[in-house]
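During the reporting period the student researcher (J.K.) took over the structure-prediction task from the postdoctoral fellow and processed the backlog of single-chain submissions. One of the processed entries is reproduced below for the supervisory committee.
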Amino acid sequence: MSFDTTQAWFDLCTAKARYCRYLDSKDWQALADLMTEDFSLDVSGASDLPVIEGREAALAQVRSSIEHAVTAHQVHNPEITFEGDSARVIWAMQDRVLWGPERLSISGFGHYHEHWLLFNGQWKLKSQRLTRLHVDVLPAAGQ
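J.K. obtained the following structure tokens:
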């Protein structure tokens, strides 16, 4: 291993914190910068979508889903396994997605299963699979 695992653990946690902040603040360029170009997004366990290949396609899907929603994503308790200059991470997660007065909203609980790669001292997200354990459906704000 070519790096200090304690520092790498901290850096991965910081990168994931940024991921959540960029997602919730809709900073799409900063979010894209955290991902590899061949990023793979798998939300098939939580939706009817197929696996999405490529950073641009994945970001387009995420934007179409939550761009006009108020979101809050939190991750906890990372389980990190280092494999050379890459890491496999499982994060416990909770998200809240409020789409507005015309649509039901959700509060979900589950896990992100991720593969991160170290490029020039920066961790980049290579793949992400979302699994959900439970979703609370919330009434639309106007109801």
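The committee noted the following: The mean pLDDT is 94.
J.K. will present the remaining backlog at the next meeting.
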